[in-house]
């Protein structure tokens, strides 16, 4: 069969498999070291880059769904790591910002994240990594085009 689908050679499957493998590896480290799930860590990282950001903007930036973002935000707020602020541009939404404790946590996590990334990719040259990231960005753009820009 010329059109047989061999899952291990199907690029979307390979991307998903590898992404899940990397995410699961990192999730174990964040859970063990900081008691954070991957969605919580992603939220902390995105909010740390901004002064304040809406949940909708976090969802767009991370491709996490509304429920996942909302649950992570609630969990982080309950731990005193995140605060909700009024959104002056949209009274129906709130902006999320890290508290001092959240910024301290981010300061402890960021070096660990960079170290994990280094360990995963230490067997690759800088040129290979740059080419890989460039290809991922091209895949993002091509996928957005297939989706009609959604």
From TrEMBL:
Question: What does the record give under GO molecular function?
Answer: DNA binding
State a single Pfam family of this protein. Answer: MarR_2
**Taxonomically, which superkingdom?**
Bacteria
InterPro entries the UniProt entry points to = HTH_MarR-typ, Metal_resp_HTH_trans_reg, Tscrpt_reg_MarR-type_CS, WH-like_DNA-bd_sf, WH_DNA-bd_sf
Asked if the Swiss-Prot or TrEMBL record annotates the protein with the keyword Transcription regulation, the reply is yes
UniProt keyword terms in alphabetical order: DNA-binding, Transcription, Transcription regulation
UniProt domain HTH marR-type: residue ranges: 1-141
Q: Please state what the protein is called.
A: DNA-binding MarR family transcriptional regulator
- Which species does the entry assign this protein to? Sphingomonas japonica
């Amino acid at each position: 069969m010329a059109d047989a689908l061999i899952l291990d050679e199907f690029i979307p499957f390979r991307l998903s498999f590898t992404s899940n493998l990397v995410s699961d590896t990192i999730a174990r480290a964040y859970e063990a070291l900081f008691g954070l799930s991957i969605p919580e860590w992603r939220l902390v990282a995105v909010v740390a880059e901004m002064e304040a950001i809406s949940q909708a903007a976090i969802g767009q930036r991370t491709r996490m769904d509304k429920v996942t973002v909302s649950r992570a935000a609630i969990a982080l707020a309950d731990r005193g790591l995140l605060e909700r602020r009024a959104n002056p541009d949209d009274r129906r939404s709130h902006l999320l910002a890290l508290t001092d404790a959240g910024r301290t946590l981010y300061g402890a996590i960021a070096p660990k994240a960079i170290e994990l990334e280094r360990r995963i990719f230490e067997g690759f040259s800088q040129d290979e990594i740059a080419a890989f990231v460039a290809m991922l960005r091209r895949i993002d753009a091509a996928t957005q085009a297939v989706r009609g820009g959604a």
